[in-house]
Amino acid sequence: MSATIFSNDSRVIFNDQAYLELNNLLADHRYSKLFLLVDQNTHQHCLSSFLGKLDKEHEFEIIEIPAGEAHKQIETCSQVWAAISELGGDRKSLLINLGGGVVTDLGGFVAATYMRGIEFINIPTSLLAMVDASVGGKTGVDLGPLKNQVGVFTEPLMVLVDVEYLKTLPPNELRSGLAEMLKHGLICDKNYWEQLSEMDKLDPSALQDLIYRSVEIKNQVIKQDPKESGLRKILNFGHTLGHAIESYFLEQPDKTTLLHGEAIAIGMIMESYLSVHLTGLSQEKLEQIKDVFSNYYPSQEISSEELESIIELMRFDKKNNNGKVNFALLKDIAKPIWDINADNELIHRALEYYKK
Questions:
Q1: Please, what is the average pLDDT of the chain?
Q2: Is residue 12 located within the same domain as residue 148?
Q3: What is the CATH number of the domain that holds 241?
Q4: Are residues 245 and 272 in the same domain?
């Protein structure tokens, strides 16, 4: 599948067509400066491949940031803003973000705010970034351990999806992206959920059509609700608990840092349990969901005391209003509902179910 997906003011272009469009853009636009943002990993594993796809040698100023969620902070933005400024960046500059979700989220925010906005292009290199950060125009950084607390909605000029980059990823990074794909099935497409549930293994070369479908699903939701005032909240299924779990593990020195998808997988199991008790999801569907996620993701140890700290972190969730924590839950597979409240006792029972 290689058809372009049009997303509000942006477009997602796949594989060889993506480089054709990029080469045409660079030839037609006389950008004053070309900046290329990478992290340590994409500098090593993806940069030479990317540069080799360009028609001619363009003069890029390469800016490298440290890899990992811990560096998705305003301090890193300050360093990138300073680098662009020192290298002569102006409003006619272009920033290309080559990396996973940290690079594309942070790079998009840097571009949106440098001199009140310069054009940027995202080239996601992780499965998570391809299926999650590729559409929607969300940019931003974390505030300490709190996920994506600072940011703006700004669309990239285009997003280039090249599945060849997936071959550079370790298995846990592929599984992290799969969690968002499974979520897309659970909230929107029962057949897609079942297709992903029955996969024997995660083979990058077999993922192209599945990635396309995930981007398509997310785009259909976002086009109806660009600023997350209603329907778009369904994309947060698993994220209210999942983000808080991810933040908690990130700030605990004795805990192994969880990848985004690993934390969201826990969130989806627990929020499916809430769905049984609050929105009518069947026990049978809950067991199926738990079985699928348990096949892909190892269980994590979370105590009741730790859950209290996680619940406290949920207070900072951006979907809350009037002090109430709002969940997106399931009435059934592909039948989501949003703005549902759950009390702490039920959340503790959801943890016990997860740990069983």
A1: 94
A2: yes
A3: 1.20.1090.10
A4: yes
Q: Say how far apart CA 150 and CA 71 lie, in whole Å.
A: 14
The answer on 270 and 140 residing in a single domain is no
Angle in degrees, CA 207, 212, 215, rounded to 5: 125
At 88, the pLDDT band (50, 70, 90 cuts) reads very high
Question: Rounded to whole angstroms, what are the CA distances from 328 to 74, 142, 220, 294?
Answer: 29, 22, 17, 21
pTM, whole model, 2 decimals?
A: 0.93
Measured between alpha carbons, how far is 315 from 232 in angstroms, rounded to an integer?
A: 20
| Contact present, 33 and 181 (Cβ < 8 Å) | no
CATH of the domain at 46: 3.40.50.1970
Reported as a single tens digit per residue, the pLDDT across 293-313 is 999 999 999 999 999 999 999
DSSP state of 49: H
DSSP 8-class letter at 68: S
Instruction: Give the residue numbers spanning the domain of 20.
Output: 5-168
For residue 209, which amino acid is it? D
Q: Exposed, middle or buried: residue 246 (CB in 10 Å: 0-12, 13-18, 19+)?
A: buried
User: 194 and 79 in one domain?
Assistant: no
Question: Per the domain annotation, does 208 fall within a domain?
Answer: no
Residue 238 has pLDDT above 80, yes or no: yes
Calculate mean pLDDT across residues 149-161: 95
Q: Which residues lie closer than 8 Å to 280 by C-beta, 6 or more apart? A: 331, 332
